[in-house]
Amino acid sequence: MLDTIEMLEAIGSDASLRYASTVELTHVLERAQATGALTAAVASGDVSHLAPEFGHAKNFAPQATQTFLSSDLE
């Protein structure tokens, strides 16, 4: 899992990877020996491939959110 997180951080911090096509990014991940789950997720566009690596727990939306309105700041 740590390798996958590190790869995701690298993709997010490198603009050439962040905006690469699916095919290009898949080739980069294969050359970097990324996990099969990450490579499959990128190739298919389906993040459910990552569930086994990060756990199968469902993430639920928060019941309440905090927003800041400009009128509240005055």
Structure summary:
This protein has 74 residues and is an all-alpha fold.
Write the SSE topology.
Blueprint lengths: L1 H12 L1 H4 L3 H10 L4 H9 L6 H4 L15 H4 L1
What structural category arises from helix and sheet content?
A: mainly alpha
Percent range for helical residues? 55-70%
Q: What is the number of E strands?
A: 0
- The count of domains is 1
- What is the H/E order? HHHHHH
Mean pLDDT: 85
Silhouette: extended
Strand content: under 5%
Integer-rounded radius of gyration? 17 Å
Identify low-pLDDT runs.
none
Contiguous helical run count: 6
Largest sheet: none
End-to-end distance: 45 Å
Task: Walk me through this protein's architecture.
The protein is mainly α. The protein has one domain (2-54). Helix content is 58%, strand content 0%. It has helices at 2-13, 15-18, 22-31, 36-44, 51-54, 70-73. The longest helix has 12 residues, at 2-13. The chain is extended. The termini are far apart. The mean pLDDT is 85.
